[in-house]
Design brief:
Blueprint lengths: L2 H20 L13 E4 L2 E5 H8 L7 E4 L6 E10 L4 E12 L3 E3 L2 H7 L5 E2 L10 E4 L4 E4 L3 E4 L2 E4 L1 H7 L6 E6 L5 E10 L6 E5 H6 L8 E4 L1
Parallel strand pairs: 1-14, 2-5, 6-10, 7-10, 11-13
Antiparallel strand pairs: 2-6, 3-4, 4-5, 4-8, 8-9, 11-14, 12-13, 12-15
Length: about 220
């Protein structure tokens, strides 16, 4: 073996060693097979607020089942209004909840004139307030508007499979020409969850992600 061959061999060994060191068993395609759900702005209503906005005893109309069991998109829309402006045709999602929650995009917050408060669903303490207008009435709902924290729904069996736990924060990496890494992705584990990663439409568009996209889960 001459000096050139020896040098090439040493270089190849060094590259191979660096590649092995850079790849962790915690981030090898673990997100493959997790569906991606992309959501636009929407609202969850309590029965009390549904009665005010649409009429006493009103029942929501299911037009499409969503990825999570029992959740569905409704034909009903409302208007949401903040200090600066209003947004029309905000879709209602069912079923009714114990508290009304409006999930908006970061750009919606600028239009409405409210701060973009990023929260896990249900964490409404101190969230911005909005006026909500329906066909039969309107309400001023305090502490209701959040930008949803990106998250992955899964069952305990899924969590065991992926080696994560409820409340853990992970990263997800998308490929493609506009791919990249999203940090601060919350793991949400319940017995009734369906395996699904939730992003809002702005997050998805930033990386050209849709429901067919695959990602790597980085713990």
């Amino acid at each position: 073996m001459d000096n050139t061959e020896a040098l090439v061999k040493l270089l190849l060994e060094a590259v191979s060693s660096q590649t092995k060191a850079a790849v962790s068993t915690d981030d090898i395609g673990e997100g493959d097979g997790i569906p991606v759900g992309v959501s636009n702005r929407h609202i969850h209503l309590s029965q009390e607020d549904l009665d005010i906005l649409f009429g006493k005893g009103y029942k929501l109309t299911n037009i499409k089942n969503l990825g999570q069991p029992g959740q569905f998109a409704c034909k009903e829309y409302v208007i949401i209004s903040g200090p600066r402006s209003a947004i029309e045709k905000v879709r209602v999602l069912g079923p009714v909840r114990s508290k009304t929650q409006v999930e908006v995009l970061a750009s919606d917050c600028r239009k409405l004139g409210i701060p973009p408060v990023v929260r896990q669903s249900g964490d409404l303490a101190g969230a911005p307030s909005l006026t909500i207008v329906g066909p039969k009435g309107s309400i001023y709902r305090k502490e209701c508007a959040i930008v949803a924290l990106r998250h992955i729904h899964m069952t305990p069996a899924d969590a065991k499979h992926f080696g994560v736990k409820d409340g853990q924060v992970v990263k997800i990496k998308f490929g493609g020409q506009r791919g990249g890494i999203y940090d601060k992705v919350l793991i949400r584990v319940t017995d009734t969850s369906a395996l699904e990663c939730h992003l809002d439409i702005e997050e998805a568009n930033a990386m050209c992600v849709d429901s067919s996209s695959k990602f790597t889960l980085i713990k």
